[in-house]
Design a protein that fits this description.
Pfam families: EAL, GGDEF, PAS_9. This protein has 26 helices and 25 strands. The protein is an alpha/beta fold and 739 residues long. Strands 17-18-20-21-22-23-24-25 form an eight-stranded mixed β-barrel, surrounded by four helices. It is globular.
Length: 739
Amino acid sequence: MCCANVLEFTVDQPKISADVLLSAMEQAIDPMVVIDEHNRIIFFNAAAERIWGLPRAQVMGQNVSCLVPQTDRALHDSYIDRNRETGIGRIVGTSREVEFRRANGEYVCGELSISRVQVGEAGRIYYIAVMKDVTEQSRQRRILILQNEVLQSLASDVTLQEVGDQLCRRVDSFVPGGVAALLMFDGAHKVSVTSSPGMPNRYRTALDSMQLTPEQMDALRSDPASSNTVVWDGYSSLARSLGLERCCSSAIISRKGQVMGVFALYLRDDEPSLAWPERVVSTCMPFCALAIEQNQTRQHIAQLSNFDSLTGLLNRTSLHNVIERLIMRGGDSQFSLFMVDIDRFRDINDALGHVNADRFLIEIGRRIRALVNDEYIVSRSGGDEFIIVVPDCSHRRAEQFAENLINSIAKPLQVGENTLSISCCVGISTFPENGPDSESLLSLADAAARQAKEDGRGLYRFAGHEKNQVAQERLMLGSALRDSLARGMLKLHYQPQVETMTGGLYGVEALSRWHHPTLGNIYPSRFIAVAEDTGQIEAIGRWSLQEACRQMVKWDRDGVHVPTVAVNLSAVHFRNRALPEYIANLLKHHNLTPDRLTVEITESVMMDNSSDTEEVLYAIRRLDVGLSMDDFGTGYSSLSRLTRLPLTEIKIDRSFINDFEHDTNAQAVTMAVIGIGSRLGMTVVTEGVETEQQWRLLEELHCDVMQGYLFAKPLPPEELEKWFRERQERGSFLVPTKV
């Protein structure tokens, strides 16, 4: 039976004809395939021809197994027949991600949905499959997973080889037929294969015996992309005899210009396009450089600054940063926060002692990690409290996850010679319903966990009526903010940024301040979240740009030359394609050159993969306006797109500078970030400098620019002018402020 006849049975004829529906299916942008009761293809639209790379004439009337990967073809009919007979199947009626090859050999990732259709009086069973090409989305997600895993490994007490093995294994799983390798050079230019779990032993032995000449090292230094001459050209015959057909690679260069090694990706298949393998190699470069230069030191630093030293999970400070960035995404962002509190942990701690109690907590962390997906965020906030953030979590899904948590943790646990029976309580809060910021969400989840504990053991509770108070406060603040913005009650204060080596003024950062007649001073972290929630953030951003430009003109007229002003913009602004034109007109109106303005972006912009955002960023940079990455290093996804965005500046977050002069780990991670900036040609600004010792250490590390209370707090324009003239008279802006 042809597809049109099938549609005659399934369409209400007076309303829509089968020919119309068939034409619509043929012109659909998503690939569509229909098979009959004998599993033969009876419909194959133009979009299906494109995604499979097969002409319709070649597949029509053929068994549908011709479209599935070769390894799955033998049993494919049996799966369909079982569903046809019983109605039971894992795929039909659901959506799942599948991988297959086009006719030209190129790998494609698709989202496949299959529907079962019963046709005619005889009840024949047909199937309609709809495929959506999600190759690019899948690749972006894999890069984020790669980055998250490697960064967490770098924050743990592991060796360079272990980090390299993990990186190579993940890359091997991302690139079909891929064999990744991390090669290092010693002082004598001898090559050693540090990591490559999938490399044939004969090829590893051949590479391990290689020693580069000074001329080869010079060539790699001047052209890192020429590394195939070292790891492939002289060994391609051996490689092909072992099933390796092609190679993508790049030399790893230190910030001092030293050639440290090569990251290579060998391919078992003769791929028609090397775009994806080359992108993976490029993504791995920053990780390889960091791992080689700062491996041991950075392990301890990341453990202290971002991760709980006992369990390896995110600590409370990092959790706050991650939550705030999730909130700053705006749009329809929503997530649930689960706070897990172990029952009777104090008794466990007293009975087992601290060592065994630590082992107990490590095992609880492992059980939680075994339940979560890659996109979940897991933290130990201290003591026996664990926190999990689950994106896009419905109420029903939250209930199921809480039950799974409670049941998994409740399994008997062997610690030393003791078998423990465990229970826990779970408190759940949700964004945006239960609060506009991380503190509110954590407090409400904690209160819900306490309520669960009061009600009994092994229970979960959702955050209660407190959310009404939060909503009312948000409504009140939103109204007051709108009124204040209209009446010009917001102000900009400016914090100087000083060049470390020359003592000159690099620029200032513009920071919004709000003093309300009745509410008093309201912190930016509070009113910016309200502005996001109430749709006022774009108006505040436009006002900030206007005010900064106006102030620069006034300073110029008064003989106060501020080279550049940095203005913070929210992720929302960068989804507006009119932003570059707005900035260009603003600069033209005030007769300012583009280099006088720098736009600061947050990590939420980095994580936004929309084409609009990326196009806006590049359009701004084409104006010659600076682009700065704010709070660099506080999240776990900064590096994945760092090299792909047109940034001119990165700012090291103040959290790395706290106790900087006494913390060698913080010094080392700062040096690593300065190295990243140096390699990528970006200016590095360190925030939060408060002591002269921090200043001297940053000077030794060759940090470009410093900003902090040591030199000046954020100042109103008149006070900044006074500050400027005093330092100008002394001949340097590197003068500590007297407190």
